[in-house]
Amino acid sequence: MTNAAWETLSNQAVAAAGLGYFVALLVHLAEWAALRQPAREEAALVGADAPRSVTSGEADDDARRTPAERIAFLGRLGFLVTCIAAGAHLVALVGRGMAADPDRVPWGNMYEFTVSGTFVLTLMYLGLYRRFKLAWMAPIVVGFVLTTLMVAVIWLHEPVQPLREALNSYWLVIHVVSAVIATGAFTLGGIASIMYLVKMRAGEDPQGWLGRVPTLDALDKLAYRVHAFAFPVWTFAVLITGPIWAHEAWSRYWNWDPKEVWAFITWVVYAGYLHARATAGWKGRNAAILALVGLATLWFNFIGINYFSTTSQHSYASEQVPARYEQAL
């Protein structure tokens, strides 16, 4: 295949992934809607009040699903469609890398980083789906991934280009892989923290889809475990591989680049979150709020710096290369 064919395949795969996530979102929203049906409907369908006689229409009656069965079916269907969409998502990333000359990892600009980050978030969600019973999180994750992909395609898309000289390093793989993994995990933990606050506000016995959300204690533990996994990965990306790569590219370990500063701010906030939980016994509401502060700094670093800063040397985030970056090369 030619490079142009690979790029076309990548663009088509992104569109297919977006369509798949959209269908999965609709299925999961239907699942949530089914949760709001009165419990008496299930009793009526089961027919517990009167004995059933064998008739010619019994097979049809048996084919009718109770509300619980419909909910379970929609949940399985949504998960399956999400898996298919994630497969198309992976094809988009592979095609993007193969479209370059020479072939490279698909992390050369903001568009590619966004597509990669959303894929990692989806992959982590699918991997933890059964272990942590994340069925309740499905429409939130799928909706977030779909929205972020739409933003990437509409506003961030750029043609495939070779990596710039400073990015053409094996440290790109090490640094960006760890940063993307940590970003996906922090986002997943942030969703758990948001739902903790939502469920706490809803009261002791919420109805409808909130009734499927785990208990406050379970949400708090889930958020802590995910953040505890993400933090050392972020530390490796920000405080180890990042400075080493910066020294290799610009002959300095620290340049006071806006991306570097905000990445460190994010590290400090999450360090405070884990420290507060371990020493001061912070749990529940206070821990969730602090985790969301960390998530806000993370996504401001990811998106905001690229729009509000004109001095960042991190060329993967923007097509515009600052003059001092060109001089450094």
Write the layout of secondary structure elements.
Elements: H1 3-35, H2 39-46, H3 58-63, H4 67-98, H5 110-128, H6 138-156, H7 170-202, H8 216-250, H9 258-280, H10 285-308, H11 323-328
Give a brief outline of the structure.
Helix content is 72%, strand content 0%. With 329 residues, the chain is mainly alpha-helical.
Descriptive notes:
This protein has 329 residues and is mostly helical. It folds into 2 domains: 136 residues, Up-down Bundle (Four Helix Bundle (Hemerythrin (Met), subunit A)); 160 residues, no CATH class. Helices cover 72% and strands 0% of the residues. The protein is built from 11 helices and no strands. It starts with a helix and ends with a helix.
Class inferred from helices and paired strands = mainly alpha
Low-pLDDT runs of 5+ residues are 317-329
Number of helices: 11
Q: Percentage of helical residues?
A: over 70%
Shape: flat
Strand content: under 5%
- Profile the largest sheet: none
| N to C succession of SSEs | HHHHHHHHHHH
Terminal CA distance? 33 Å
Indicate how many domains the architecture comprises.
2
Q: Please give the radius of gyration in angstroms.
A: 23 Å
User: What's the β-strand tally?
Assistant: 0
Q: What is the average of the pLDDT values?
A: 84
Organism: Nocardioides bizhenqiangii
Transmembrane segments: 12-30, 73-98, 110-128, 135-157, 169-198, 222-246, 261-280, 287-308
Protein name: C-type cytochrome biogenesis protein CcsB
Membrane topology: Multi-pass membrane protein
